[in-house]
Automatic annotation (TrEMBL):
Keywords of the record: Oxidoreductase
Oxidoreductase in keyword set: yes
CDD domains the UniProt entry points to: NAD_bind_2_Glu_DH
Transmembrane portions of the chain: none
Subunit structure: Homohexamer.
Alphabetical list of PANTHER family matching this protein: NADP-SPECIFIC GLUTAMATE DEHYDROGENASE 1-RELATED (PTHR43571:SF1)
Domain spans labelled Glutamate/phenylalanine/leucine/valine/L-tryptophan dehydrogenase C-terminal: 214-455
Record-stated family: Belongs to the Glu/Leu/Phe/Val dehydrogenases family.
Name of the protein described by the UniProt record: Glutamate dehydrogenase
Length: 457
């Protein structure tokens, strides 16, 4: 190792450590945000070794500070005419690559830390897709559980009334995330039109195809995750065929991850919701799950009414004790900790594909990487949803619509590209096979180069 390399390494490490220390001081109460930032920062040291110009331009301090955070009161009336108040957020993180883009989450746990972690990750994910989209995220601590359809509509209308002036097809384009699906997007879109008097279809994605949504957006995140894992498996001369798969959650991402894994010949034996998990040794009946979740909005335990030989177990983490070849965490952040990771490994898991955002904590990621199994990080593996959102924006702008097959083929190609770019970046920067480092670097370099050419702001 030459003296210059050593000093470049020291410089890079000191720079990253310094920015992270400052971040911790300023955001000491934001655990999820610091967790997401730490994972990305650690990956970027080799980039700063090779690119001191990024240090000179102080790219890291600039990229980790959102362009702006919008926080607002959402007051609405429930069915008993009581006035309820929630807090809404939109974090417009970076528009270097295109309009701010990312979902809205409605869940009681939502706070600024959660929205910032999601928004920060979204910058790099969106850059990886190769589509012209920046990064953003939003949501509210509103709990949709147990609310009537009319309450959901009134909440969405109140939320959009506060947010609409910050949005636009070339400004900021929200979509769904936990607790926000096509129904909520419909109510948000209706209110946006009512307020602006404009039919700007590209201001929201995840719309129903009947009024401007893209075919295959509903399936995109789950299918994309399986396409990504399929690329990892192919590289290892393996496939989904005959594999036992466990998928957490039973929402949008999980449902379509299960569907594609089954189409690829896997046996998916378990899935979950926030109350617990079901295990069906014969393989899950996806029609039953769709009826329970998409039609009835019921608990996953009612699966036993369709398949009496299956079992239901209360609690969220127990699902990772089920032996499987492939695990697809598709529910929420930090659902796999170090202990669950060690259990999965002891039971012989060969591949992990993160359909959710940050489902594995740092200890779990290190367990998987140290064990040398295939590990597809969320930023890369679940990018198919936002990628098809960008395709929805393109269709809206050009006023043409593509068939399901056309969109699905583009999605598959995008996931292949994300895999090969992440793999190539990991190789180039000295971490072969480490797609965490590879995806973070491949996304970061695109945005950093954009920032260098745009001057200081
Ligand atoms: N919808 C999308 O296009 C995308 C979603 N994601 C991420 O995927 C994850 C799931 O999102 P969606 O499927 O859209 O939400 P969803 O609201 O449709 O489904 C979430 C599912 O997770 C379950 N759940 C929540 N907490 C849980 C817990 N602690 N243990 C077990 N299950 C739990 C819920 O019961 C529900 O079945 C989130 O991390 C989200 O940020 C990532 C990329 C795109
Ligand atoms: O489609 C979108 O814009 C949002 C997708 C999203 O929220 C995510 O990738 O986490």
């Amino acid at each position: 190792m030459t003296t210059t390399t050593v000093s470049n390494e020291q410089l890079a490490k000191e720079y990253v450590d310094g920015v992270f220390e400052q971040l911790k001081k300023q955001n000491s109460h934001q655990a999820e945000f610091l967790q997401a930032a730490e994972e990305i920062f650690l990956s970027l040291v080799p980039v700063f070794v090779q690119h001191p110009e990024y240090i000179k331009a102080n790219i890291l301090s600039r990229i980790v500070e959102p362009d702006r955070i919008i926080s607002f009161r959402v007051a609405w009336q429930d069915d008993q005419n009581q006035v309820q108040v929630n807090r809404g957020y939109r974090v417009q993180y970076s528009n270097v690559m295109g309009p701010y883009k990312g979902g809205l989450r409605f869940h009681p746990t939502v706070n600024e830390s959660i929205i910032k972690f999601l928004g920060f990750e979204q910058i790099f994910k969106n850059a990886l897709t190769g589509q012209p989209i920046g990064g953003g995220k939003g949501g509210s601590n509103f709990d949709p559980k147990g609310k009537s359809d009319a309450e959901i509509m009134r909440f969405c209308q109140a939320f959009m009334t506060e947010l609409y002036s910050y949005l636009g097809p070339d400004v900021d384009v929200p979509a769904g995330d936990i607790g926000v699906g096509a129904r909520e997007i419909g109510y948000l879109w209706g209110q946006y039109k009512r307020l602006t008097k404009a039919h700007e279809a590209g201001v929201l994605t995840g719309k129903k195809p009947v009024y401007g949504g893209s075919l295959a957006r509903k399936e995109a995140t789950g299918y994309g995750t399986v396409y990504f894992v399929n690329e990892m498996l192919k590289d290892a001369n393996d496939s989904f065929e005959g594999k036992t798969v466990v998928v957490s959650g039973s929402g949008n991402v999980s449902t379509y991850a299960i569907e594609k894994a089954q189409q690829y010949g896997a046996k998916v034996v378990a899935c979950s919701d926030s109350s617990g998990y079901i295990y069906d040794a014969e393989g899950l009946d996806l029609d039953a799950i769709k009826e329970i979740k998409e039609v009835k909005g019921d608990r996953i335990s009612t699966y036993l009414n369709y398949r009496p030989n299956a079992s239901f177990t209360e609690g969220c983490t127990g699902i990772w004790t089920i032996p499987c070849d492939i695990a697809l965490p598709c529910a929420t952040q930090n659902e796999i900790d170090g202990d669950s990771a060690r259990t999965l490994l002891a039971n012989g898991v060969k591949a992990i594909g993160e359909g959710a955002n940050m489902p594995s904590d740092l200890e779990a990621i290190n367990e998987f990487l140290d064990a040398g199994i295939l590990f597809g990080p969320g930023k890369a593996a679940n990018a198919g949803g936002v990628a098809v959102s960008a395709l929805e924006m393109a269709q809206n702008s050009s006023r043409v619509y593509w068939t399901f097959e056309e969109v699905d083929a583009k999605l598959n190609q995008i996931m292949k590209n994300i895999y090969s770019e992440s793999k190539a970046a990991a190789d180039k920067y000295g971490y072969p096979g480490n797609l965490v480092v590879g995806a973070n670097i491949a996304g970061f370099v695109k945005v950093a180069n954009g920032m260098l050419s745009e001057g200081v702001y």
